[in-house]
Amino acid sequence: MLSRFALSYERICRTALMVFIVNVAMIAHTLLGVLVFGFFPSIGAAHTTYRTWLLCEDRAWTVRNTWSCFHKAWKQDIRSANAFGWPLLCLWALLIFDYWVVNWHDAGGRIGVAVSGALVVLMAVLGIFTLLSWVLRANFEESGLWIAKTTIQMVVARPLCSLMSAVLFALLVWVWYTWPGVLVVFGLSVPALLSCMVVFSYAKLPGMDIHNISAGVSTPSHMTEGR
């Protein structure tokens, strides 16, 4: 009993250390890419690192394992991550601007309320899409358009996966609000880990399915082995 508790505690500590190191790596590589060119590759590299870790038989990673995996993924994903991330950011900016216009200007009574509600729904769907799309990018070496289409299909076809993503992210935001230190120490590394774990557990994604991995099913060659 005591030895099992010690092993569980060690795994938790190692995982917490890995999440912290990924956060440090995200900040360092974002600065390395002069912010503009480093942020989205850092997001992509974080998801690739967690995907690799989840598929690894031995998850007792050292700091060196985590950093080297992240750095390799970041270098390989600079161009494609920016090509995917910037249009997504522009879409977010457009929706947020529309929401601001509708709510802070006279939009015509009930019509304004309806439009505002529709925008909230769209932003919620886009939020789930954003969380899941980066995981798919880490798992498939495909174009951004293919990733976007497949993510939309998965949001609809895997409602449990979408629901769990939304619930865990909402819980994480509450944790950030209640204990701001969690955001400072672990940053955006946590939602990347949670998204990968949700997809790994519920999405039934080829090459990243906990049930197939447990059964020893191999990963198809067209999927990444860690970008």
Q: What fraction, in percent, of the residue positions are helical?
A: over 70%
As an assembly, this protein is: single chain
Spans where pLDDT lies below 50 across 5 or more residues: 215-223
**Sheet with the most strands?**
none
Number-wise, the strands total: 0
Give the helix tally.
10
Q: What is the N-to-C succession of helices and strands?
A: HHHHHHHHHH
Mean pLDDT: 90
* Computed Rg: 19 Å
- What is the general shape? globular
Distance between the termini: 39 Å
Structural class call reads mainly alpha
Q: How big a fraction of the residues is strand? A: under 5%
Description:
Helices cover 79% and strands 0% of the residues. The protein is built from 10 helices and no strands. Helix 1 (2-32) packs antiparallel against helix 2 (39-55), helix 2 (39-55) crosses helix 5 (110-139) and helix 2 packs across helix 9 (189-202). 31% of the residues are buried.
Summary of the model, kept short:
Residues 215-223 have low confidence and may be disordered.
Write the SSE topology.
Blueprint: H1 2-32, H2 39-55, H3 63-76, H4 78-104, H5 110-139, H6 144-157, H7 159-178, H8 180-186, H9 189-202, H10 210-215
Descriptive key words:
227 residues; mainly alpha; 10 helices; 0% strand
